[in-house]
Amino acid sequence: MDLLKLIKQRKSIRTFTKEVPPRQLILECLEAASWAPNPTSQQPWQFIVLSGNSLIKVSEIIKESYSGAAGKTAPQLTENSENARMLEQRKKENFSEMLGFLKEHNTDMTSLGEGNFNFHRAPLAIIFATYPYKDQNHIKSTVSAMQTFMLAATARGLGTCWANAVSICQDAIKKELELQDELILVDGISVGYPDLEAPINNVPRHRLPIEQVVSWLE
Ligand SMILES: Cc1cc2nc3c(=O)[nH]c(=O)nc-3n(C[C@H](O)[C@H](O)[C@H](O)COP(=O)(O)O)c2cc1C
Predict the structure, then answer these.
(1) What pTM was estimated for this model as a whole?
(2) CA of 189 to the centre of ligand 1 (A)
(3) Domains delineated in the chain
(4) For 7-46, how does the pLDDT look when each residue is reduced to its tens digit (9 = 90+)?
(5) Could you identify the atom of ligand 1 that is nearest to the CA of residue 14?
(6) What counts of helices (H) and strands (E) characterise the chain?
(7) By the 8 A CB rule, do 16 and 189 touch?
């Protein structure tokens, strides 16, 4: 398939079928992820696949620790910044459109909200972790691996969704999984086969006109 078409075809999937993707397929996508750019080919990442009991356990830990942990995330922009206001406004508009669409399609909003704590009930989830190092390059590389993974997964008919709760609740998750304290859990990705009929998987998606976000300096 044309790569540009695939890039646009990837979308956040928040309702999955119960079918568990085969291990070989996931390994193939993770192998693709490992070809993401990274400094001096250090490959500063660890991919931790959660299935079965480990997935249930981590979902429980997230539910327990989320509200306490979320408050600790430092804001990146002050509320008074013009840019912060612009992003807030975009968020509000997108959210309102999504809610309107879901209401029209009688979606259970409580269950949808809980999805942020339980990987949207996907049969698998992957934690993308990295090691602290001199600069931020290890984090940038791991994020790049995450996008590469999602594209490879989309190409194989899998659905994915980013899970922010993993970084927010990382202290509790590391403790539960007995991971090295030093590891940084960049975030998680829910993985499974998409329920293509579910309204939440068919919410209208947009991007800004490209002229609005490009400055071409000569
Ligand atoms: C850093 C980051 C964190 C995200 N966290 C979540 C999340 O916790 N739960 C969720 O359902 N989607 C999450 N998403 C997915 C975004 O909501 C989604 O990418 C956005 O709405 C655009 O939709 P699309 O992925 O279908 O293009 C996250 C995406 C990114 C990049």
Answers:
(1) 0.96
(2) 10
(3) 3-71+116-198 (3.40.109.10)
(4) 999 999 999 999 999 999 999 999 999 999 999 999 999 9
(5) 11
(6) 8, 4
(7) no
